Each structure stands twice: as structure tokens, then as C-alpha cells.
Amino acid sequence: MDYQAGEILLVDKPYHWTSFDVVNKLRWALKQKLGVKNIKVGHAGTLDPLATGLLIICTGKATKQIDQFMGQEKEYTGTILLGKGTPSYDLETEYNIEKPFDHISSEMLEDVLKTFIGEQLQTPPIFSAKKIDGKRAYDMAREGKTPEMRQNLVNIREFDIDAANFPEVKFRICCSKGTYIRSIAHDFGQKLGSVATLIELRRTRIGDYSVDNAHDASLLQKEILAANH
Of 12, 48, 90, 187, which is the active-site residue? Predict the structure, then answer.
């Protein structure tokens, strides 16, 4: 593989790793392998630390393609817990609110599900990497401030749920660039007259690239170091 000329690597991001952890570890391995002081390595779309799944990593001249990958449709699977909420809309922060959920019927779930399909404005979570006046929103949120989040136009093409394990609701969603699944979980709870938390998230596809073809991040790092020049 010619990493300096440019390669596209599919990585299955582990739980608790940041997207930058993956980039930094692979960059370090490539610098060791190639004996260079620096090499361009970047990812095409952040995944939250508590999410797993597909990260597209570009090296060398392939980093010019990052924007192209970021604009492609994403597919996610995961689990939403109804009845409990957190400030971050996921398990990064502690539960701080509980609301009843026994009024929610399967008909209600289906009716609310339909309201998410198509183009809509979405408010990102305050615990997100969005920049406000040059500062990350999550840094402001961790300081106890409430940053004002601008709405984004997003498009949800498919949204399927399985409520067999209610109040946990499993889902699969196909959506446009810039869609926050944590915000979908939060809004889902609100529309049902309750609260909700995203307790599990996995990115399974970016455009035509599937996580089924992705490498384990730690193994890929070892393979790079072990491979012949």
C-alpha cells in the first residue's frame, strides 16, 4: 500500500475511543513504518466516543477526498431508552430526569416515527463538537454554560424501530450528513410525551462503504507496523 500517495482505510472504531484517537494511532504507526516526520491522516466524519462503527480514514493525497465522503448518506443502528434523560442525550453524562412512559402505545410509536421521515430542522446537542464563536459547544457545556445551538437542515430517508424490549427501542436509520442521532433520541422522547436517552450507537455504513469490510483499529495499527515496505 502506498500511504503517502494516498489510501482509503475502513476502520471499526472501538467504544470509548475518540475519532482523533484512531487518527493519531494510525498516523503514529505510519510515521514509524515509513520513517517520516509527518504524514497526512484524516477521518471523514466524527463518531462520538460512546459510539462504535465505521470511520473512513484517508492518508496522504487521499485526504483531499474527505469532504466527498462526509457528504454521503450514513446508516446507524442503536438503542434508545425511554423514560430517562441526560444533559448530553447519551450516557456521557448521568441521568438527571425521569418521566413516565407507560402511556406510550405501539400506535403512538409508529405515528411519531413517521414525523421524522424527510427533510427537517434539527437542533444539535449542546454536548457536541459544534463550534460557537471559535469554541467547542461541549467545552462550554462542561463549564456549566448553555451554548445557543443553530439548527441544521437534515434529511432522514429511513427510520425503523423494534420495541420488543420496551422501554428500550432498537432502531436503524439512514440519514444525511450532519444528523445527530442523540438529538433524534431526545426529540423522539419529547414527541412521545416522555424523555429518552441514546444508550447504544453503531455506524454501519457511509455511502457504499460498510462496517462489514472495516478493520479493527488496534489490529490495523499492528498490521501497518508489521507489513513490508
Answer: 48
CB 67: neighbour CB atoms within 10 A? Answer: 10
Query: Same domain for 81 and 27?
Result: no
Helices (H), the chain: 19-34, 66-70, 106-114, 137-142, 181-191, 217-226
Q: HSE, CB side, 13 Å, CA atoms: give it for residue 190.
A: 10
- What helix, strand, coil percent values describe the chain, rounded to 5? 30, 30, 40
Same domain, 115 and 193: yes
Number of domains into which the chain is organized: 2
pLDDT at residue 78, rounded to an integer: 98
| Average pLDDT of span 58-76 | 94
pTM: 0.92
| Residue 48 is among the residues annotated as catalytic for this protein | yes
CA-based nearest residue to 75, from 215, 165, 216, 208: 208
Q: Would residue 173 count as lying in a domain?
A: yes
CA distances from 79 to 87, 95, 150, 172, 180 (A): 17, 16, 26, 9, 14
Give the cell for residue 58: 484517508
Domain range enclosing 19 = 8-71+209-226
